[in-house]
Amino acid sequence: MSERRFRGKMEVEIRNCTKRTVNSRAIKKSIAETLKLLKLKSDAVLSVALVGEKKMRSLNKAWRKKDSTTDVLSFSFLESGGETKEVGEIIICLPVAARQARFYGLSERKHIARLAAHGTMHIFGLDHEQSSRESKIMEEVQEKIVAGL
């Protein structure tokens, strides 16, 4: 996890690039609660883009070399060094999130909030694919986020 510490309140900018209605407050609450649980404070900006499957597949192919759609991608700007006003961007695929929500028996609102928490943790350096300890932390935080909504 990134050792960088911030002061202040993070600003969350949400762009919905789909025609679906989304609860922006739940996403913002999820991100704020994730930062609180990880004991992180930030006065920077975090962007969240909500996209469809075509856009997500294109991004996943370009950045991860996987020609398929996925639920969430995260791009951290913290590794670039120096002070930054934007810590990163989370991209959530709403159609995939909707299918996953049904599969997991969650409301779309809760599952999208879970994905926002997941992306936030990646931006601040946690990686479930590289560490079983970090995987456990991420799962615990996500469960707390879902339970708190």
Number of beta strands: 4
Instruction: Kindly report the spatial arrangement of strands forming the biggest sheet.
Output: 1-2-4-3
Radius of gyration: 14 Å
CATH fold topology:
Collagenase (Catalytic Domain)
* Range of helix content: 40-55%
Low confidence ranges = 1-7
H/E topology pattern: EHEHEEHHH
**What is the residue-mean pLDDT, rounded to a whole number?**
89
Q: What's the number of domains?
A: 1
The CATH top-level class label = Alpha Beta
Tell me the number of helical segments per DSSP (H or I, 4 or more residues long).
Answer: 5
The largest sheet is: 4 strands, mixed
**Helix/strand/pairing class, anyone?**
alpha/beta
Strand content: 15-25%
General form: globular
CATH architecture: 3-Layer(aba) Sandwich
**N- and C-termini, Cα separation:** 25 Å
The CATH homologous superfamily is called Metalloproteases ("zincins"), catalytic domain
